[in-house]
Specification:
Layout lengths: L2 H17 L9 E3 L2 E2 H20 L11 H9 L3 H21 L4 H17 L6 E4 L2 E4 H23 L7 H17 L3 H8 L13
Antiparallel strand pairs: 1-2, 3-4
Length: 207
C-alpha cells in the first residue's frame, strides 16, 4: 500500500468534507469539550500544518521503528504528561480553529498544498524528528493519515455531513489500529472481537 497516496487521498477527502460543512455548524458541539471548529483546528494542526515542519527536521537517531509504536509510546506517558499534552492540544486546537476563519475550506486547501509539496521532497527512509522521537518518513506519515481519517469521521459525525474515504485509506488506518492494539498487548482481544469470538471491553480504545 502506497503511504503517500493514502495520505493524499485522506487529505482530499477531508478538504471535500470541510467544504460542505454549513458555516452555522462551526460553533456547534464537536468532540468532547471541543466545538466543531476546535475539532477542525486540531485535525489541521496535527495532520496537515505540522507535516512540512517535521519533514524538514532531521533526527540523528531512529528511535521509533514503526507507526504502531508512535501511538503505543503515547499510551505509556505519565498522567502528568498526558494532562499537560491534552491542555496544550486543546489550546492549539482552539487557536488554530479560530485562525481558520469563516471559510475553513480555503485554509485547509492551503495547508494540504504545503504538506504534499513537503512530502514530495522527502525520502521514504529519511529520519525526521517527531514528538515521539526519530522516525522514518514512511513510518511517521501513516500516523498523520490516521489522524485525518479518525478525526475526519469525527468531523463528519458532528457536522452531519458524510465523508468519502477510499478503501485503501480505510484499510491502512484500520490495520494500523490493529497493530497498535497488538503493540499494547491487546492483539488477541481485538482479534477475537473482529472474528466474532469475543467482545471488546466497554469503552475500549487503542488511543
Amino acid at each position: 500500500m502506497d503511504y503517500r497516496r493514502t495520505y493524499r487521498s485522506a487529505a482530499i477527502a477531508f478538504a471535500d468534507l470541510v467544504s460542505r460543512i454549513p458555516a452555522a455548524r462551526l460553533d456547534a458541539p464537536g468532540l468532547g469539550e471541543w466545538t466543531l471548529r476546535d475539532l477542525l483546528g486540531h485535525t489541521v494542526s496535527s495532520a496537515l500544518r505540522q507535516v512540512p515542519t517535521v519533514l524538514a527536521d532531521r533526527a540523528p537517531t531512529l528511535l521509533v521503528p514503526g507507526p504502531e509504536f508512535y501511538f503505543a509510546l503515547v499510551r505509556s506517558a505519565s498522567d502528568e504528561m498526558v494532562a499537560a499534552a491534552r491542555k496544550a492540544s486543546t489550546d492549539d486546537a482552539r487557536a488554530t480553529g479560530a485562525a481558520l476563519g469563516d471559510q475553513p475550506a480555503t485554509a485547509v486547501s492551503g495547508y494540504i498544498g504545503q504538506a504534499t509539496a513537503a512530502l514530495a521532497g522527502a525520502g521514504d527512509d529519511d529520519v525526521v524528528a517527531t514528538p515521539a522521537g526519530g522516525m522514518r518518513v514512511r513510518d511517521w506519515l501513516p500516523t498523520r493519515t490516521f489522524e485525518l481519517v479518525v478525526h475526519g469521521r469525527d468531523v463528519a459525525t458532528a457536522a452531519g455531513v458524510p465523508i468519502d474515504l477510499d478503501p485503501d485509506t480505510l484499510a491502512e488506518t484500520a490495520a494500523l489500529a490493529a497493530r497498535v492494539a497488538v503493540a499494547l498487548g491487546d492483539g488477541e482481544t481485538v482479534l477475537g472481537a473482529l472474528t466474532g469470538r469475543a467482545t471488546l471491553p466497554a469503552g475500549y480504545s487503542m488511543i
